[in-house]
Amino acid sequence: MMEYPEKINNEAALEEFLSTPGPETIEMFSRTDGDIMFLGIGGKIGPTLAGMAIRACKAAGVTKQIYGVSLFKADQERKHIEEMGIQTIQGDLLDTDFLKSLPKVKHVFFLAGMKFGSEENISLTWAVNTYLPALVADHFKESNIVAFSTGCVYPLVSKETGGSLESDLPLPLGEYAQSCLGRERMFEYGSKLNQTRTCLIRLNYSVELRYGVLVDIAMKVKNREAIDLSMGYFNVIWQGDMNNMVLRSLEQCASPARILNITGEHILSVREVALEFGKLFKVEPEFVNEEAKTALLNNAGEAFRLFGRPEVSTKQMILWIANWLKEERAILDKPTHFEVRDGKY
Known about the structure:
With about 350 residues, the chain is of the alpha/beta class. The chain has 12 helices and 15 strands. The chain is globular and about 55 Å long.
């Protein structure tokens, strides 16, 4: 098992830890040929995912060209990624001329997507989440493609089910989730049409110390804000564990496209997690509403069979987050809106 610290003291240490590859990831890169491109590298996950790929290649003793494509709205963001050893390419993926100018590489990770504010700009949401995947599937038809999707394509289910399985029929609620299913369908279409080996990652939810469902709950407890229990249950996975699983998903690409749920082992209770943060912050949490019988839940049993179980426990994540927030360290201020039940983000 990977060793991890009792406490994470700063963002540099956090990113170092999130991008540390496991031995199986390193072994995979030792037998993987071809260059890699991360499309939409500038988001919450891209830098540490690509950073882990760089570190795995170095540990495996292999040399690859690794590209990172993004709008790069901040120069510092681009500089940070370049310092990892990643060749950045700046541009708008919705610009078809720009997209067609991108070098064709053997392996592509698709991270671009729109969620926050999607209700305010529905047409852009569909363009980013559905039209763009169609363009990418066509341009990179000769590549292996690992594309991020979301568990939001599933219906709400009771916790007694253990969460939705990959074989369950999707039933997306709201236009954001519908556009994400559209993303999957475009990659599935390209996979069938061109025999493109593809893996679709239905993620629910990734967590680190600066964002995620656990951070959302912790902030409400710490600031003595009421916590809505309507969406009373959820799944999470530590971003470092998720990064390892997603990179290893390269070897699960298939035609027709393969679907994989990635999340943590347990179905968590919003109430119980809030009470745990309350003990750590010495605050009595305030709750509103009652737990509904259903929630947005994934079952990642197939991913565990392929990749093993997550290393970092929920208890460890809670302790790290509590210490991080007690010390007033930086957060991304990007709430997950996990409590939304009508699909309107």
